[in-house]
Amino acid sequence: MFTLEVNGRKIEARNGETILDVLNRAGVKVPTLCHMKELFPSGACRVCSVEVEGFNTLIPSCAYPAQEGMVIKTNSPRVIKARKTIIELLLANHVQDCLYCVRNGDCELQELAAVYGVRERRFPAEPEKRPIDVSSPSIIRDQNKCILCGKCVRTCEEIMGVSAIDFVHRGSKTIIAPAFEAKLNVSSCINCGQCVLVCPTGALRERSYLKEVTDALQNPNKFVVVQHAPAVSVTISEEFGLKPGKDVDRLLVNALRRLGFDRVFDTAFSADLTIMEEASELVERLQNGSQIPMMTSCSPGWIKYVEQFYPEFIPNISTCKSPQQMLGAVIKNIFAKEQGIAPENIFSVAIMPCTAKKFEAERPEFSANGYADIDAVLTTRELARLIRMYGIEFDSLEPQEPDSPFGTRTTAGKLFGGTGGVMEAALRTVYYMITGKEPQDLVFEEVRGLKGVREARVKIGDIELGVAVANGIKNAKALLEQIKAGRNDLHFIEVMTCPGGCIGGGGQPFNTDQNRVRARLQALYQIDQNEPLRASHQNPLVNELYEKYLERPLSHQSHKLLHTNYAERDVLV
Amino acid sequence: MNTQLLKKMLSLEFIQQPAGKPKNDDLQFQIRQLKNSNAKVPVFYVGAGTCGLGAGADKMMQHLSSYLNEMQIEAKIVEVGCIGLCSDEPLLDIQLPGKTRLIFRKVTADNVISIVEKVLQHKIPLENLLGQHASQELEPWENIPYLQEHPFFAPQKRWVLKNCGLIDPTSIEEYMAHGGYRALARTLQTMTPTEVCDEVEKSGLRGRGGGGFPTGRKWKFALNTPAEQKYMICNADEGDPGAFMDRAIIEGDPHRVLEGLMIAGYAIGASKAYVYIRAEYPLAIARLNKAIEQVRDLGLLGENILDSGFNFDIIIKKGAGAFVCGEETALIHSIEGKRGMPRPRPPYPAVNGLFQKPSVINNVETLANIPEIIGQGAEAFAQIGTEKSKGTKVFALSGKIQRTGLVEIPMGTSLRELVFTIGGGVSDGRQFKAVQIGGPSGGCIPEQHLDIPIDYESLKAVGAMMGSGGLVVVDDKTCMVDLAKFFMDFIQRESCGKCIPCREGTRQMLEILNIITRGRRSEHGYDALERMKSIMYLERLAEVIKDTSLCGLGQSAPNPVLSTLRWFRDEYDAHIYERQCTAGVCAELITFEIDSEKCKGCTLCALKCPTQAIYGDRKMPHYIVKEKCIGCGTCVEVCNFDAIIVK
Amino acid sequence: MQKSKKRQQIFQKVKDAKREQLIPLLQEIQETEGYISPDAVKELGQVLKIPASKIYGVATFYNQFRFKPIGKFHIQVCRGTACHVRGSANVMQTLEQEFNLKPGETTRDGLFSLEVVACLGACGLAPVVSINGEFHANMSGPKLVKLLRKLQRKETQKN
């Protein structure tokens, strides 16, 4: 511990802290654009510069270690002028369409411009005009709004281990692009959208399907069905100013009804269905001893990752469709028949925390007879936008119950929303399937939490299962490499593409950080603790679905509706 | 390679014997032989550096050798590096048995044979003669001036360039015969790393790459950082446009650089070194490769060198072309196989550098100084130069100057002496305007400051910097706004693009300069207003870029603009307010007229004009239609009668 | 296919492939193939275990690397300071006027390609132009045109 002086105030600092750390703790706000907690400072944006006595130049506070006796000024005219000029320089090379921008009102650059009072366009060079990449079904890249902070590149490389994009060229010609400046749809991008989450401007955004959805809602001939993923109800509240970790499940149901959806279902229902299939598949694989370890299949980013980078592991991936696609298939096939509606007249919408789900819904194997199982996927952010657009006051909503038959879920299905949730849900049911009894303790503490990889040895009857949970593809990659190198003590692996799982998904509200993710995860655990139905095989409506239509897990009918297959993808990786 | 002899020359017994009193006559005889001092046949030395070859040295050499063959003259041809006088290339030295070496200028394929014929008959063609080299061992020519008296060489103090142009750079024997590797042998066999660092610190040597940080202190940081592996890096990525010191040193005397590198490696405790050299220098790379092969064969690379327990290896990395890689952290990233983008410091490379290990990066000239500092002692070095800038500095003279080339002068020499005595003043009888020193990070110095001594501090005081040693002379036909624009264009292309002030700021500064030099032909009233306004932002931008950029490249990027603004504001004003380029360079600001008295009506200009802006009948004076003229200047170039008036 | 074979030979020389080898390998590939193709990047990525985007990012950072085939005669015009004040801009302008050749491009007959280099380090002989590695000193627009026309004639005679 030592002291230094900030704006004439003595402040305590700890060894190893950067100046920015110290300032943040002391409540001195310093703007940043490229700073990423936990990663080595890149020092690219320079807006966090401060004046330190004895230095010739301004010092980037994010990258410079705090030292004893430093005399720091964070708001001297020199500092303010430098910051303002930097923001002006960025705006000078930025397309001038703030009012039309998806991030209008929620843009870090715009906010800084307002704070520092940028009122005129001072510099003469025109912005470079660059084409917008609209090739991807998930993510739209608009280079005209890119400020080259590099957060997307670092996220894609250092957190996801994908490296679909990098800086290309040099100097003022620098852009961010996939190899050979190819379009995103033919790149190794896995559509996870983590880049969208960290982008300070509107340079990266999800491809929006709001128009398709509102059109369908207005169309009297369409029966519009909606499902919402387990991770949405614990995050959307943040879009309406509530504190992170507040579950608004029943309010969400009401909001969706007010928007005009004809049926409101819960993807957690089909998560339970997934567990029935996946647990059975695991038991079967354990009996046959084939393709062990089995790996989960509900995260579409992960699936594309394996198809591209590790096709040798395709046989290890569970053949179960993801909950979104299972429910999609059930709605267009079973529900449609039950209700006497032609499947082509059903418009099936999924509210997802995820951008990769948009890609998943477009995969050709997820459509039959010319119509897709899922017609449109909206992210949490898009739904919030729709709610605002339709003038629905979120805080004035009354709780409502979801629709039958696909609105009932167990807490196991709800746990799908966070990392470790699929594992925990599966273990509860696998235990029951193997032993015929419920496990004594339903909570598998070892697989909970936010650590990159968590492992456990779980005793079920006579067998001991080696299980592992990975969140963030980079962590999953490490596991795959271990297995490639000969590791063979694992039987079941859960992978969620995004750090924290779906609650940290690329479609979630901006400003998603570790603290928020932790709060959201806690909310899921709370739900699990509070409700009576906590294992998927206890879901009465899932069981009814089997009785009425599917016979049993892994039956012929189940295979037809609920399972799929994967193939190697040829992209420049 | 006579390994036995060379090993003897590295022995303690040999290197410790007092100078001037050689004990071992047989050994001394052999050494003289290596130096060609007692050659029985004529020896021809061809200046075969890149510049010499570019000027036609190889063709000259081919002619020479076939002539010697034809005439059955027994002789020896030695390819040497560049002695520095590029404007007189190709250069040929001739040493007749027992006589001192004569040096001839502008020896081409056409005149080589006649020159050689004459010299062999002891008739010296004076029109091509530069002078004779001084020698203690050889008999001088009578009535022939010494090369050291030549104005180009007289003020020089050749310490780093000692061997350049004199010895065969591909021969380790010759290097050692001239005292090479003695400093290394002494270091390894008698000094501790701390002593080496102390000696270098005491000498006052400062980094010659531009920054001027004390070399000994840098070494000590690395020496005092404990680590299993440390690295030495030789920065030969000479990116400054207008500088070729490093190339010439490596081409002319590669072993000197290697020796310095090895001593440095020993001093900081590194066992591995990288030489990061521009791929644009194929000859220098070849010379370096050959030299490394030779020292490896001799056992000066590898394990337990000279039984000292010191292990060392050198790896060559070819730079792929990025000016910013002169910056230390960018260079490290480049060696690691990444984009050469700088990172914030601290941690400094001496603590955490290449592959996260302590690393010292020294430039070629810095390292080339080391063998002499160890060999002659820190005091001898410290006696040269000024109080704060010790030793010598190598400069690459180019631009509008009589004698272009490579010179080494003691620190403290005045710029005037460098330009007017050594360089012989401005070429083509034109008027001196300024020297540009320090390249894209440096600045321009006008006539009134030519008397300042060349040292780190004085140059900074007038808004320039030492830089790596590029020195470009410009005359009254050079537009200073255009020159500033040239550097800005260079910098904004070479900026790594990482930090905003450098990437976006230099782009805007360039655009402002473009607006200033853009012509009235395409100007609207609004543009004029914009032009006036934007000049106000030049200085503001420059200030912020200097204040906030991530690395040295960005922090010094505005210098060329600031220094031209400081000393040549009137030229900016003329461009902005009067819309005139007095130097006649900015194409859009000049107009062309045809002098009807001088024009003979040859029609050549009308034929060559790309926009058909010139009209006139054959044998009648022509005229230029201003609205069609794009100011390309083709007519001026092609006119044989000097009839085009540039306004 | 022969290309791929040559490439394999290049890769084999590198014993333990590390990131450090990336730039040297790119240089060697360009030397044998003339440019960097997507195919080469793919193979290189497999050898070094580096994503293609990273390889492309590195390659585009440096002036040296090209992604299109070069002409039979590769012209490098030096744009160093000394060359600039002695008129290298003029040389470039002439090339564009006479041969319609712009930096980074190749003429349609595949004969000439133009590259602008920062500094060839032969400032004493400015302006300098290098053709297939051979230096030509004190260049001017007309001088270069003459030289290139000569090369052009020789080529047409050959065919």
Give an overview in words.
- The complex is a heterotrimer of chains A (573), B (647) and C (159).
- Chain A has 573 residues and is an alpha/beta fold.
- Chain A has 3 domains: 2-75, Ubiquitin-like (UB roll); 90-206, Alpha-Beta Plaits (2-Layer Sandwich); 211-562, Fe-only Hydrogenase (Larger Subunit), Chain L, domain 3 (3-Layer(aba) Sandwich), CATH 3.40.950.10.
- Helix content of chain A is 35%, strand content 14%.
- Chain A has helices spanning 19-25, 77-92, 108-115, 151-159, 194-198, 210-218, 236-239, 249-259, 267-288, 300-309, 323-339, 356-362, 380-389, 411-415, 421-435, 473-484, 514-530, 540-550, 556-562; strands spanning 2-6, 9-13, 49-52, 59-60, 71-73, 132-133, 139-142, 166-168, 175-177, 204-206, 223-228, 263-266, 294-295, 346-352, 367-368, 371-372, 376-379, 453-460, 463-471, 492-496.
- The radius of gyration of chain A is 25 Å and the shape is globular.
- The two termini of chain A are 47 Å apart.
- Chain B has 647 residues and is α/β, with parallel strands linked by helices.
- Helices cover 40% and strands 15% of the residues of chain B.
- Chain C has 159 residues and is of the alpha+beta class.
- Chain C contains 7 helices and 4 strands.
- At the B-C interface, helix 4, strand 9, strand 11, strand 15 and helix 19 of B face helix 2, helix 4, helix 5 and helix 6 of C.
Task: Give the secondary structure arrangement, pairings included.
The complex is a heterotrimer of chains A (573), B (647) and C (159).
Chain A: E1 2-6, E2 9-13, H1 19-25, E3 49-52, E4 59-60, E5 71-73, H2 77-92, H3 108-115, E6 132-133, E7 139-142, H4 151-159, E8 166-168, E9 175-177, H5 194-198, E10 204-206, H6 210-218, E11 223-228, H7 236-239, H8 249-259, E12 263-266, H9 267-288, E13 294-295, H10 300-309, H11 323-339, E14 346-352, H12 356-362, E15 367-368, E16 371-372, E17 376-379, H13 380-389, H14 411-415, H15 421-435, E18 453-460, E19 463-471, H16 473-484, E20 492-496, H17 514-530, H18 540-550, H19 556-562
Parallel strand pairs in A: 1-5, 11-12, 11-14, 13-20, 14-17, 19-20
Antiparallel strand pairs in A: 1-2, 3-4, 3-5, 6-7, 7-10, 8-9, 15-16, 18-19
Chain B: H1 3-10, H2 12-15, H3 25-34, E1 43-47, H4 50-54, H5 57-70, E2 76-80, E3 92-95, E4 101-104, H6 112-120, E5 129-132, H7 172-177, H8 182-190, H9 193-203, H10 215-223, E6 231-236, H11 245-252, H12 254-268, E7 272-278, H13 282-298, E8 302-305, E9 310-319, H14 328-335, E10 359-363, H15 364-376, H16 378-383, E11 392-399, E12 405-410, H17 415-422, E13 432-437, E14 443-446, H18 456-461, E15 470-475, H19 480-494, H20 500-517, H21 525-548, H22 552-556, H23 559-567, H24 569-578, E16 592-594, H25 604-608, E17 614-615, E18 623-624, H26 634-638, E19 644-646
Parallel strand pairs in B: 1-2, 6-7, 6-10, 7-9, 11-15
Antiparallel strand pairs in B: 1-3, 3-4, 4-5, 8-9, 11-12, 13-14, 13-15, 16-19, 17-18
Helix pairs in contact in B: 8-12, 8-15, 9-10, 9-12, 11-12, 11-13, 12-15, 19-20, 19-23, 20-21
Chain C: H1 2-13, H2 22-33, H3 38-48, H4 52-61, E1 73-78, H5 81-85, H6 88-99, E2 112-117, E3 129-131, E4 134-136, H7 141-158
Parallel strand pairs in C: 1-2
Antiparallel strand pairs in C: 1-3, 3-4
